[in-house]
Specification:
By secondary structure, the chain is of the alpha+beta class. The protein has three helices and eight strands. Strand 4 and strand 5 form a beta hairpin. The chain binds zinc ion (2 copies). One zinc ion (ZN) binds next to loops.
């Protein structure tokens, strides 16, 4: 959905959209959307500014990624509000060496006649994703000895990294 500044000059633009998996491209972020992404809110042109836009709303989506520890499926449910401000790119002082990719709207400013809601939502979702992508906080991960998923099977491999570390320290202190 295109959020047109021209339209915002006349009235606030309300949106209430549902994007099915695949409609917004998350492939470069190693996540897939596992249900519809719902977004609703208002885009408005702020009075007494140089064309500054405020986009306020709420989004919810469920995403799936590979668990950092066990490589299984990790699910994330995001349901959050956002309140964003964008200035027209013409007001930016552009350093000569900074190339601006016109196909990609950077957060913080917009080019031309408005913004694609999809781009804004994609940025927000990527920002909201946790850095640690785990299937659960107590995921036991993969056994470094036999390679089994410890959440599914308990193996009898002896892994005592803590002891190894103490032994190594003892070796060092002995000189
Ligand atoms: Zn896991
Ligand atoms: Zn094992």
């Amino acid at each position: 959905m295109f959020l047109s500044v021209k339209e915002m000059e006349v009235r606030k633009v309300r949106f209430e959209e549902t994007f099915q998996p695949g409609e917004i491209d998350f492939s470069s972020d190693a996540v897939t959307q596992s249900g519809p992404l719902r977004a609703e809110g208002v885009a408005e042109l702020l009075a007494n500014t140089d064309g500054e836009i405020r986009i306020k709303g709420r989004l919810s989506v469920t995403l799936e990624a590979e668990c950092d520890r066990c490589l299984g499926r990790a699910q994330f449910h995001l349901d959050t509000g956002f309140d964003l401000f964008y200035r027209p790119s013409e007001t930016l002082v552009v350093e000569p060496e900074v190339a601006i990719d016109e196909g990609e709207a950077e957060i913080g400013f917009y080019a031309g006649l408005g913004m694609e809601l999809e781009d804004i939502l994609r940025e927000q979702v990527v920002l909201l994703l946790p850095l640690q992508r785990v299937c659960s906080a107590d995921c036991k991960g993969i056994c470094p000895v036999c390679g089994r998923n410890r959440n599914e099977t308990s193996c009898n491999c002896r892994v005592e990294p803590a002891n190894d570390r103490w032994n190594a320290l003892r070796e060092i202190s002995r000189g």
